């Protein structure tokens, strides 16, 4: 017996000694915080956090891959303790939530019939699943079985619905889904997602430069959830009141209904919900991620700058806007006239963004009051350069500097900046150019009391780059168009006042690089148009005189159009900490382009500030379309009239700066939202003809 | 020749999982994916060879001389558990790649009855040192082979129409039985 005890003791002691020696000899240094962190976790090894057990989760926390609040069982107190160990703010991690991306479900056509396969994984491994759509939901519910929290159920339409109150963001559903229908993302990750080739995107959403989820917000309008619609738009576009008024809606050109009927009036619906929010008297809350303590300077308070500031603020960064003009808004305030976008509306919209905690310094001119270098010295880690394109091109003809000669943006900003929106004008005025600025100038001139207003354009109406609706409105208001006319000289009197514009008549020749037919002058066709005021609105470029005072001006590459050289996907300039967007990056373009650019730059700045590599996805679409989503015909569309744009009668609007375009009524908005086919990548809701009552009786009988 | 016979017998005829039904918990638990099955198989081969050697030494050089055979079970458990711990520490320091490859399967083997069973069988048969070592190796390879085969079958079952009441573990047990029957064909070969 004693022998037995001794031997067991011996073996036990040997094992103990060998192990203790081994633990010394084979000691691997492990961050002591890992065991401290693990101590505060629930110890249940439940895997609810998405890691293989508590020790793996603790490792991830210490490695900075998981947030202190990763343990879903231990609760907020443990998160506080863990945050204490790690020395970080417990709130820095945003909650993760699962989102369903597929709208199709059963409405997507089937390609294969599977006999017996029971799971999505099985379907996906056999020829990719039953649906025609390669990205769509397979509907077998692998995600539902994977969810340990009972937060997912199969909706009536054959795709899963996530209960956000139960979802803990563990990521099990995303792992289980063989497609990428369920994505578990934080708000920041969603704000920074750009359209990709594999996304479930309708043609309109692929086209929108701001990448707004258009089918979703129209669906929310249809269901009466106007607040939801506003929030959907705000995920991509903070200036919905502005865009709802001035956007030329490129999305509508790709509307599938437009192939068989008139396109859905998407922008009027946007304006409807935007105005609904403004008129409701209270602002919908906009959530922001917890503060990161990083400072970013945004130079230029135009649409690009405001959009960039808005997204950076929502990502938790501290943002200051520096604006040269007395008020924020940039070209939307100083270039777009009051009758298209009232100051009051713009003020309300921008105030909502400033209320998030964005600081704004107006009357601060880059190069005079501060430089990029001085901002760096004040602790701004990244700089967004969104100074727009404010320097008008000149005609380059003699007599251009006579009294009574203006430039487009110069004139528009002078009018917008005047307290009563008035500047002295003449009796007969000519505006040279065919773009939106030119139209804005003529319509403003009419409202200021000019008796005869001409547009002088060197090509024909068909080639005018201005929005069609704007041209039509100008025609209604009585603007005279002088097409195929190229100015050659401005004629003045002895006092140096403009008395006329001499132009050459042109004819259209061979198409040029832009595909438009090149105007060719007709010999000896000089004509004089008698005017006492002339505005040149033939385009603009960024004003880059501030560079003279910059220490690193040689390192900031400039293109030959005076824009900042940048990667169009990343919007980073040749100075790593300077990012750009809007007209300063692209040359004069749409407001919605600037807003999309602001968000794109915000993503790069966020990556720069968090020390990540500044990169985009290799599957990024960047305004390209998914070929399979573009149809030639759309069966199942029953024609329904498009809601016309309500506007003030010409007689009422021409005498003042009162807003011309009106908002559609709620009834029209509901009608218009029902015209939407609720498209996704491939599928949509075909319309069924309404059966007349008599036919129903027969059918039943 | 003798060793080839031992190996064939260990892998096929007396397959530790399918003929002797030892180690069924990891057989069902880690066979859902080929990847994990391979990891587990490798870890078992590694540990079983070590354990077979050391337990043989303890039994033949310590317990038999002192006539303490009745201590076999408790001594083996102690030794195997310590051994796994030791191997884990050793691998972590010296072969980090293998350590991270084996992952959580290494500590899981502490409670694997296939390992203990193989050691006990070796002593029961009163094998000499080298045959015991080769037998341990063969058993371990047999374990890995059965696990990998089973994982392959289970991955295919996902694509099959399984009646609701039989899904998942039930059908896995039925399948295990069928595979076991097919291994019955090796009986009498050696």
From TrEMBL, chain A:
Superkingdom of the source species: Bacteria
| Residues holding [4Fe-4S] cluster 1 | 46, 49, 54, 71
What positions does the entry give for [4Fe-4S] cluster 3 binding? 147, 167, 170, 173
This protein's GO cellular component annotations are: plasma membrane
Report which residue ranges the record marks as coiled coil.
none
List residues binding [4Fe-4S] cluster 2: 133, 137, 143, 177
Query: Required co-factor?
Result: [4Fe-4S] cluster
Q: How is the cofactor bound?
A: Binds 3 [4Fe-4S] clusters.
Q: Where in the cell is it found?
A: Cell membrane
- The residues covered by the 4Fe-4S ferredoxin-type domain are 122-157, 158-187
| One GO molecular-function entry | oxidoreductase activity
Q: Which GO terms describe its biological process?
A: electron transport chain
Q: How does it assemble?
A: The complex is composed of six subunits: RnfA, RnfB, RnfC, RnfD, RnfE and RnfG.
Q: Please report which protein family the annotation says this sequence is part of.
A: Belongs to the 4Fe4S bacterial-type ferredoxin family. RnfB subfamily.
Q: What does this protein do?
A: Part of a membrane-bound complex that couples electron transfer with translocation of ions across the membrane.
Q: What is this protein called?
A: Ion-translocating oxidoreductase complex subunit B
Q: Which organism is it from?
A: Desulfatitalea alkaliphila
Classification from the root reads: Bacteria, Pseudomonadati, Thermodesulfobacteriota, Desulfobacteria, Desulfobacterales
From TrEMBL, chain B:
Keyword Repeat set for record: no
Coiled-coil annotated spans = none
Q: Which UniProt keywords apply?
A: Cell membrane, Electron transport, Membrane, Translocase, Transmembrane, Transmembrane helix, Transport
Membrane topology annotation: Multi-pass membrane protein
Cellular location of this protein?
Cell membrane; Endomembrane system
Annotated EC? 7.-.-.-
Q: Per the UniProt entry, what are the Gene Ontology biological process annotations, in alphabetical order?
A: electron transport chain
Give me the Gene Ontology terms describing cellular component: endomembrane system; plasma membrane
Which of the seven top EC classes does this enzyme belong to? Answer: translocase
Q: Where are the transmembrane segments?
A: 6-25, 37-58, 70-91, 98-123, 129-153, 165-186
By sequence similarity, the record places it as follows: Belongs to the NqrDE/RnfAE family.
Relate the protein's function as given in its record: Part of a membrane-bound complex that couples electron transfer with translocation of ions across the membrane.
Subunit annotation: The complex is composed of six subunits: RnfA, RnfB, RnfC, RnfD, RnfE and RnfG.
**What name is this protein filed under?**
Ion-translocating oxidoreductase complex subunit A
């Amino acid at each position: 017996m004693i022998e037995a005890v001794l031997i067991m003791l011996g073996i036990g002691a040997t094992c103990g000694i060998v192990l203790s020696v081994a633990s010394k000899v084979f000691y691997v240094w492990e961050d002591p915080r890992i065991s401290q962190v693990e101590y505060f976790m629930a110890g249940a090894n439940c895997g609810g956090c998405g890691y293989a057990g508590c020790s793996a989760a603790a490792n991830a926390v210490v490695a900075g891959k998981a947030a202190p609040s990763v343990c879903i069982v231990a609760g907020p107190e443990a998160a506080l303790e863990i945050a204490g160990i790690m020395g970080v703010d417990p709130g820095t991690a945003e909650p993760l939530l699962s989102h369903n991306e597929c709208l199709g479900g059963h409405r997507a056509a089937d390609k294969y019939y599977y006999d017996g396969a029971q799971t999505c994984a099985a379907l996906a491994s056999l020829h990719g699943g039953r649906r025609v759509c390669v990205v769509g939901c397979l509907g077998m519910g692998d995600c539902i079985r994977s969810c340990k929290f009972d937060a997912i159920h199969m909706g009536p339409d054959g795709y899963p619905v996530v209960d956000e109150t139960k979802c803990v963001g563990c990521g099990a559903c995303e792992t289980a889904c063989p497609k990428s229908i369920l994505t578990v993302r934080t708000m920041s990750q969603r704000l920074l997602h750009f359209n990709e080739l594999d996304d479930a995107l309708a043609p309109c959403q692929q086209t929108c430069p701001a990448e707004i989820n258009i089918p979703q917000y129209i669906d929310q309008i249809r269901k009466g959830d106007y607040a939801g619609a506003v929030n959907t738009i705000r995920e991509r576009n903070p200036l919905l009141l502005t865009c709802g008024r001035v956007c030329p809606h490129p999305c509508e050109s790709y509307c599938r209904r437009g192939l068989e009927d008139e396109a859905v009036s998407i922008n009027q619906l946007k304006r409807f919900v935007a105005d609904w929010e403004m008129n409701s008297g209270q602002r919908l809350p906009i959530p922001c991620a917890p503060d990161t303590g990083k400072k970013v300077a945004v130079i230029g308070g135009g649409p690009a700058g405001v959009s960039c500031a808005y997204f950076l603020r929502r990502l938790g960064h501290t943002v200051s806007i520096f604006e040269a003009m007395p008020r924020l808004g940039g070209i939307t305030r100083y270039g777009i006239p009051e009758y298209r976008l009232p100051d009051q509306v713009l003020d309300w919209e921008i105030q909502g963004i400033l209320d998030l905690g964005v600081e704004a310094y107006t009357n601060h001119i880059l190069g005079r009051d501060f430089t990029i270098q001085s901002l760096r010295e004040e602790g701004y880690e990244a700089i967004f350069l969104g100074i727009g394109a404010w320097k008008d091109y000149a005609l380059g003809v003699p007599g251009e500097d006579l009294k009574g000669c203006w430039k487009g943006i110069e004139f528009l900003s002078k009018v917008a900046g005047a307290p009563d929106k008035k500047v002295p004008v003449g009796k007969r005025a000519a505006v040279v150019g065919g773009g939106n600025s030119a139209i804005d100038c003529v319509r403003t001139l009419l409202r200021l009391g000019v008796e005869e207003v001409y547009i002088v354009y060197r090509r024909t109406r068909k080639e005018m780059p201005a929005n069609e609706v704007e041209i039509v409105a100008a025609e209604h208001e009585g603007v005279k168009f002088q097409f195929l006319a190229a100015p050659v000289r401005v004629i003045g009197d002895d006092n140096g006042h403009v008395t006329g514009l001499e132009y050459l008549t042109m004819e259209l020749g061979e198409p040029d690089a832009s595909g438009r037919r090149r105007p060719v002058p007709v010999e000896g066709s000089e004509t004089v148009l008698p005017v006492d005021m002339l505005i040149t609105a033939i385009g603009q470029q960024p004003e880059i005189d501030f560079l003279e005072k910059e220490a690193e001006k040689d390192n900031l590459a400039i293109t030959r159009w005076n824009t900042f050289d940048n990667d169009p996907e990343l919007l980073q300039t040749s100075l790593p900490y300077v990012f750009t967007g809007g007209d300063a990056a692209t040359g004069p373009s749409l407001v919605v382009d600037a807003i999309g650019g602001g968000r794109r730059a915000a993503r790069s700045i966020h990556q720069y500030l968090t020390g990540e590599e500044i990169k985009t996805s290799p599957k990024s679409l960047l305004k390209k379309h998914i070929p399979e989503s573009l149809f030639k015909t759309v069966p199942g569309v029953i024609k329904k009239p498009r809601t016309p744009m309500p506007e003030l009668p010409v007689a009422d609007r021409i005498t003042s700066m009162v807003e011309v375009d009106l908002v559609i009524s709620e009834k029209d908005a509901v009608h218009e939202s029902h015209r939407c086919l609720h498209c996704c990548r491939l599928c949509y809701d075909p319309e069924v003809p309404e059966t007349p009552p008599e036919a129903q009786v027969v059918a039943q009988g | 020749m003798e060793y080839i016979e031992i190996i064939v017998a260990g892998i096929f005829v007396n397959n530790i999982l399918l003929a002797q039904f030892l180690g069924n918990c990891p057989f069902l638990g880690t066979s859902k994916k080929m990847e994990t099955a391979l990891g587990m198989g490798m870890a078992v081969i590694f540990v079983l060879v070590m354990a077979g050697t050391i337990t043989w030494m303890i039994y033949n050089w310590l317990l038999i001389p002192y006539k303490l055979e009745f201590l076999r079970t408790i001594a083996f458990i102690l030794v195997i558990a310590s051994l796994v711990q030791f191997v884990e520490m050793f691998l972590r320091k010296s072969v980090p790649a293998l350590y991270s490859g084996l992952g959580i399967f290494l500590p899981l083997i502490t409670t694997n009855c296939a390992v203990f069973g193989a050691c006990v069988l070796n002593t029961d048969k009163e094998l000499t040192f080298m045959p015991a070592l080769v037998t341990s190796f063969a058993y371990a390879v047999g374990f890995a082979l059965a696990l990998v085969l089973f994982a392959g079958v289970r991955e295919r079952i996902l694509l099959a129409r399984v009646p609701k009441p039989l899904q998942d573990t039930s059908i896995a047990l039925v399948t295990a039985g069928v595979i076991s029957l097919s291994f019955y064909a090796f009986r009498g070969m050696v």
